[in-house]
Amino acid sequence: MMEDRRLTINAELRAAEPTPQAPTEPQDSDKQDKSNNPQPAKTAQNSPKKLSGYAIVWNTPSKDLGGFKEVVSPDALKGVDLSNVLMLNDHDYTQVLASVKAGTLKLTPDDKGLYFEATLPDTTTANDVFANVKAGNLDSCSFSFDVDDGSDKWEKDDQGNITRTINQIKDLFDVSVVAVPAYDSTNVGTNSDNQNVNVNTRSYEKFIKGENKKMTEKTIIDNNEKTETRSFEDFIRSHGEMRDGLATSGVAAVVPDEVVTPVLELKNSKYNLAQYATVKTVSAGSGHYPIAKRNEKATLATKEELAEIADVDANMFEDVPFDVKTRAGKIALSNEIVEDAAVDIVGEVKNQLQKLVDNTDNQNIMKVLTSATFKKENATSTDDLKKIFNVELDPALNKMWLVNQSGFNYLDTLKDSEGRYLLQPNPTAASGFSLFGAPVVMISDAVMPNNTDGSFPMIAGDISEAVAVFRRNQVTAQWDKFDQFAQGLSVIVRSDYEPISSDAAINVSLSNGKGAGK
Question: Is the same domain home to 176 and 279?
């Protein structure tokens, strides 16, 4: 586990000078015997030396950390266990100054940051640190931590400046007194009454090498996309009147990429057959798209020195024609949702758009798979299913099974001759089961209804080599009043669904016959 180390501006680091305590007088009874047994008065004792200040200051930007700056959110320590935090000298675990567990370190998150009070032990290291803070030689605080995965946020402003916001710290390991500031100027003040040293500084000490590389792996939210999304929200809440900041297509507004891309890439979809198909983005409304196909006849030819490479005697591509269709749908939005500023109305539109895309993809992909392009077979037993799987389909295919709810329920009751269930657990499959080693995907009966003769429909094969989905990424929307009771957005999505290789899938009708399960 890699620890991040940060130094803190406005640390307000103070060294509290020990104050002498009054000497202890002897008891009265002792005074009476003073002439016979004199008891000297106890000498004055000093209170412990203390340091205090801020280890973390909220919402305070760091120096440039190699292309970005960093701030810590006020909620970053919520839920964090601080019971094992140590105070160290320069992050050195052999030089412990105080600890929460021992009661010598108190950590208090407040409106400004993480405030600390440390009672120092009477050791050479602690005394040296105290003296250096008092003299101004040490004037910075630091903290060592790690971050929850995905809890930080990256933003880029209009000037291209990138800021990382730490929203949740996973573990806080130590707070330290350090020497090297990341800011060019510091503000050191002295309180003449108690001779405390007041240090206002923040810096980053020993910044871990490789953070720049980690930063490039993060998704940076571009401010332009945010502006488009805000404009799209204004467009919705104004019932289509406000279009500033949005591209338009005729009378419709173009839905921002930030909204459309996650939908079309199925990032939030768990039930869309397009994730198993070959999906291509096209810029034209129609044409031909070459898709690489499997071909066992394609080989590498022997080549003599200086000789030309012989032509490959095999067709390496399937030329798939496409004709993108315009598909319209409705996203209903009530006045309450539109007028309530607390509602994430863009998120509501995205969720409804995802459902429309899912339903459209599933319906049209099933139309392709059940078309006359693909071979049809009947099965009344597990032996029939095995033959289709083992013989009828090319072993080079990445095979799977698509079954509806009724067919899955029937398969789930079948056993082989040794009493073992036909469906075997497979945690990588969408249904959690596999048939003959291939994952099983269960589809709603509404999407894949039973056959008219009562048999169960199944599709065996490689969907990625069977179906191509063509999309045009531009999605448009316009405000519409559907009827006297309903209003919302009319959205336009452009897509097409075409078969690729006719031998990549087989339609199976599984009958509940007497031979089933044997």
Answer: no
CB 352 within 8 A of CB 489: no
Q: Show which of 170, 189, 216 is a domain's final residue.
A: 216
Contact 76, 165 (CB under 8 A): no
Mind listing the pLDDT tens digit for each residue in 411-435? 999 887 788 888 998 888 878 899 9
Same domain (yes/no): 259, 284: yes
Q: State how far the Cα of 279 lies from the Cα of 268, in Å rounded to an integer.
A: 16
Tally of domains within the chain:
2
Task: Give the residue from 216, 247, 274 where a domain finishes.
Answer: 216
Taking CA atoms, 71 is separated from 7, 48, 150, 167, 218, in Å, by: 11, 34, 16, 9, 16
Least confident residue range of 26-30, 143-147, 387-391: 26-30
Instruction: State the helix-helix crossing angle for 345-369 and 257-264, rounded to 10 degrees.
Output: 30
- Note whether residue 28 is domain-resident: no
- Quote the pTM value: 0.54
Over residues 129-152, the pLDDT tens digits come to: 999 999 888 878 888 887 766 667
Which of 145, 19, 10 lies closest to 80 in space, CA to CA?
145
Residues 268 and 212 in one domain: no
Distance CA 225, CA 282 (A): 22
Average pLDDT, the chain: 78
User: How confident is residue 473, by pLDDT bands cut at 50, 70 and 90?
Assistant: confident
66 and 182 belong to one structural domain? yes
DSSP structure class, residue 210: T
Six-digit token string for 435: 């048939």
- The band of 309, judged by pLDDT with boundaries at 50, 70 and 90, is low
Give the CATH number, domain containing residue 373.
3.90.1690
Q: What is the average pLDDT across 387-392?
A: 95
- Written as six digits, the tokens of 246 are 């949005």
Instruction: Tell me, yes or no, whether 208 and 248 share the same domain.
Output: no
